[in-house]
Amino acid sequence: MVATAAIQPAEAQAYDAIVIGAGFSGLYQLHKLRDELGLRVRVLDKAGGIGGTWYWNRYPGARCDSESYYYCYSFNKEIEQEWEWSERYPEHSEIRRYFDFVADRLDLRRDVQLSTEVTSARFDGARNLWLIETDAGERFEARFLVTAVGCLSTANVPKLPGLETFKGQWYHTGAWPLEGVDLAGKRVGQIGTGSTGIQAAPVLAEQAAHLTVFQRTANYSIPARNRPMTAEEIREIRASYPEIWRKARSGPNGHPFDIPTRSALSVSDAEREAIFEKAWEGGGLRFRASFNDILTNPAANDAASDFLRRKIREVVKDPEVAERLTPRDHGFATKRPPIDTAYFETFNRPNVLLVDLKAEPIVEATERGIRTSKREYELDVVVFATGFDALTGPLLALNIHGENGLPLSTAWAEGPRTYLGLQTPGFPNLFTITGPGSPSVLTNMPIAIEQHVDWITDCIRHMRQEGLERIEAKPDATESWGAHVNEAANATLLPMASSSWYLGANVPGKPRVFMPYAGGLARYAGICSEVARDGYRGFALR
Ligand code: N01
């Protein structure tokens, strides 16, 4: 008889810090910990390339809603001055080129391990170390575990009965095939009209023979007014970066916009209309900054919402289609506002059909397409633009177990509980970049990411200087922070959009908790700095 040797688990590779994710957060965190603190750091990412969300989101029309000149890092003067954006809003492929440029410039790739999925992370309380395992059976141990997995990286594919019988192809926009999809001559069905669907529909309609848009909730959208950057603009922007970053950091949401002090109700109807019109012509998320109370005062919000509803009627030729496209169940920007390039115009095309799922809900997928309560729609390709299991989904997918084996899924059974969005009690030495309870998705992400990474780096520097091995959020500080996150949300109109992913409402069975911190980025950053200055108030260190 031949004895089979027991399979020995691979020996753990030791690091000071493991960072999960190689997008904006992970790459910057690697640079800070390795190049400033001199730590041994390994970045793990399941993707085959760097770029985080921009590695996966390659659907037709994918580009960023923040403007290119400030959707980038601010920490490095040379990168800031040398990189040149070609358009007002960067397309996904250009953002990946930017990541390549940064990674090469900072020599980051040698510490980034791609095509490596983390399958579990367990805290060893006796040694104050995290033990991390990957799908390849590799094991790592590290004092610090930093998640840099983004907020919108776990695809939400609805459980559509019969999808397995569908003879065509289906794709989720957040996991678009790297090689692209040839849609020429195809009948395409798109489900979902959030930011992604609104970007995708006009391009899908151009590429495909026919597009059917299945809409559950009508949405507002502002024209992006994308265009090439001029040499003059690039020069001006480069010269103004100190002021651009100052504004971005001192405002509520990381955009370098001047925040008006006027209320939408403080001006005459004609003036308000003129201000909205100018913002509409200018395009983009700046529209939200027309007045200071669009997200806090219901009457101001109604004024903005009415203006945008009228625009839909002006653009869409068929009044019935226009009405179906008009949002009536939530106010403008209470859900993340999309921006678009010819979205509403797309419904004037002869090869585009709008299906209102409120009037005829989807019943099932069939061999030939999608059947609603009224009829079957024959399709060759279904595109799910159905969003993400936002904020908590990417963290829960890591299978994290804290002190005494406590699963993160148990700690968060009633919704995420964090202190400052940075840590969770029971999970020492685990830092969550842009975690729930921080401003994250309510901001221009790179600015929020830099603030978190800088804070985490300073905290780890402090611990090493003081010879400390462990930091953990205290439960009482976490409870108070949770109450403050609720209070901040309730001071706005944001919780009123009942179908919003900010509340987890898009994923069946997910606890309904308003997850991001709505108190503003500048205020939040001030609180984080104060906590650190106060000897890391609310954290237990030893
Ligand atoms: O996802 P969403 P997204 N049957 O959740 C519908 C960021 N982003 O990918 O509203 C039928 O917003 C759902 O309907 P409803 C940005 O932060 C950034 O568009 O739940 N329909 C909705 O219409 C954004 O907010 C950029 O009733 C279903 C849509 O699918 C976030 O990502 C670009 C359904 C999902 O909308 C998410 O946007 C794009 C079902 N079972 C996105 N389930 C940038 O430029 C869901 N829907 C940076």
What features would you describe in this structure?
This protein is an alpha/beta fold and 542 residues long. It folds into 2 domains: 13-154 and 390-541, FAD/NAD(P)-binding domain, CATH 3.50.50; 222-384, no CATH class. Helix content is 32%, strand content 16%. It has 15 helices and 20 strands. Strands 1, 2, 3, 4, 5, 6, 17 and 18 form an 8-stranded mixed β-sheet that branches. Strands 7-16-8-9-12 form a 5-stranded parallel β-sheet, with helices on one face. Strand 5 (129-134) and strand 6 (139-147) form a beta hairpin. Helix 1 (24-36) packs parallel to helix 13 and helix 13 packs parallel to helix 15. The longest helix is centred in the C-terminal third of the chain and has 22 residues, at 445-466. 3-acetylpyridine adenine dinucleotide (N01) is lined by residues 64-65, 152, 158, 191-197, 199, 216-217, 336, 357, 385-388, 441, 499, 501, 506.
Describe this protein with a few key phrases:
542 residues; alpha/beta; FAD/NAD(P)-binding domain; 2 domains; 5-stranded parallel β-sheet; binds 3-acetylpyridine adenine dinucleotide
